[in-house]
Fold each of these.
Amino acid sequence: MNFKRNCFSIITLLGSVFLITACGKSNDFVQYKYLDEVTISDKPEAAKDGSWVKEAQFESYWASTKTIIDPVFGELKQELGTTYEVLNNYTGSKILNSEGERKLLVVPVDFADYQFDINHEDYVENVRKAFFGSAKNNKYVSVAEYYNRSSYGKLRIKGKVCDKFFTFQKNVTGEAAKELRREDVKEAYNYVITDWYQANYHKSIDEFRLDPMDPESPVAMYFVYAHPTDNANFFWAYTFEDTPLSWSSYTTMDTFNGEPDAHTFIHEVGHMFGLKDYYPTEDTDAVEPTGRLDMMDCSVGDHTGFSKMVLNWTRPYHVKNSTKIKIRPLVSSGDLILIKNNWNGTVFDEYYLLEMYVPLGLNFFDSNIGNSKAKLPSLPGIKIYHVDARLGYFHKETAHSTSLTFDGYCNVTGNGDPNVLNPNIRIAHDNSTPQTVTEVKDYRSNYLYELELNHVGHPEAACATNINLFHKDDSFTIKEENFNEQPNNTFFKIDIKSISYTSATIEIIKTN
Ligand SMILES: [Zn+2]
């Protein structure tokens, strides 16, 4: 289950949603027009001297799932598929495929015992703008526009905002408020699917199922509730891991002059496609591994390079030898540089990832206006990330355990508990505080995704800025000891030779 960090709700509390007036006729809903074509090539490329390679697609991931035990050879590795298949089939999550046309059903939710001070017509109109409207309708962009542009045209989120309200099945004020559980949101979801939609619209909900031909297939649904975000357990923004279901408040849109702000919706929909939070989720965490500079961190800007690889929107240039390489801004081109010797060809490995940031396109709004806790840098720069997205085996101690025990990394032969059939396979690390586990000590002391800072001026628990990115004449050295997995024999020196708003030239020297 995922939480949205509360960067945008701060604004909501300061500004007042109750001052909202009806949207003006000059800003009526206009449907976002999807890009005509995919603007990024899937053709394989390679440097003439072989110093870098860009494959046509990611490799399939292979791991033992304990379901095939050969009498002679023991466990046999199985092909688990590429990123989407692995995340959807082996991690316990139920996610949407992030390519092609995806349907989302958006349902306004109200409460019998709580009066929200806005008329239903304006409510539905503003939610429609935030999910499917044009840029003119929005402070930033709609969910549909964001995902269409961030994916370079590969993903088209379509669907519907219901014009009728689902009235929540439980009271939410007084003593009743103490009894509210997140499971109640799932009950509402199931009721909408089995009864409410058919009763109100007199047609089948099947067109919104992940697989419209399968009546058992889940529906991708987003509840926008008519209540402030004032209870971190229940009235908060979250997305369920085992159900494609998000829940967040109308107030996060902070609508002004008929223009909503869709940042929170965009962040939550990221979880529906399997993305993780990059901010530390424990309140006591002092370190911000990605410096708040991302949609899955502080809900700002375009998705980052690792996210775009997970979503299969782009593939990196894999550096194999010393080279000089020119990359364009990630936001408009998908260009990425991946550094690791013997990379396994999937997103599920440990490696360094370089992307070129510019304060343009989907980054423009948050580099200019921003929010109270995060503002994107105002200058172009290179972001260098350490990724540790290795998969691990996990199991529950008992059927009722809520936590999982780590058994070892999938790429290491002999890991996992041989007595467990169909072990839970998931990305071993996240960006929260390391926690000691029983089976393999301190395995979480590695972050999933960490921004390498350019030296100075960054309090650990704060937003990274211009000076933390890498600019002309800056260098960074990757040594074997920077990696968690040993040995890996990776030594590279990175020099930023030039950078403008349109491209950067980076020299990478292999030093071993
Ligand atoms: Zn989140």
Amino acid sequence: MIDFYTAGTANGHRAAVALEESGLAYRVHKLNLQAGDQRKPDYLQVNPAGAIPAIVDDEGPGGKPLTLAQSGAILLYLAEKSGRFLPRDPARRALAIQWLMFACSDVAGGSGTLFQLAMAAPEKSAANVEFFEKRLVHALRAADGQLAGRDYLADEISVADLALYPVVATRKPVIEKHGGLPNLTKWAERMAARPGVAKGMQVSV
Ligand SMILES: N[C@@H](CCC(=O)N[C@@H](CS)C(=O)NCC(=O)O)C(=O)O
């Protein structure tokens, strides 16, 4: 059984979608980030960085418990454990990992900046919000190009699609405002129609 520590953010949804799609058994522990659950001593034993998502697999490699943070690492671990979402073909596999990194660094970072500007930045600036919205959409334009003539980022569905979808879903209004990303929009509809994706997106709402 996998214990899954999460909250209703795109990083949390990323791991939830992967857990649902992998078909592995898990139980959810919801953290209230506003209340500071992530900084409580019990949780810092799970992830000393004080962030979600994290998992504890009591049947990790060699039958030993494994504790893991970082949504991208969790996706790769679940893909290897379930034998799903990491293409066997080496070229597709390399591309899947490239787009996984893109989703978890460039795109998640850009979306995180928008969150910080809205919730935490000491000074509010509409111009800065607009600037970082456009930067995020510019990054997503690369995925839109990759999806021209393809159903999935690495041709077959992979960790890359599972990683990117929650941010695209969360930032739909920003994409619509600055967008014109038709391939990404169609891909997002395809992803949303998957029962595992839909269920994963509801896990910590
Ligand atoms: N790169 C990390 C980011 C994790 C992260 O930033 N989690 C946020 C929520 S989306 C968090 O737990 N923040 C708690 C805090 O900053 O106190 C990942 O992909 O898992």
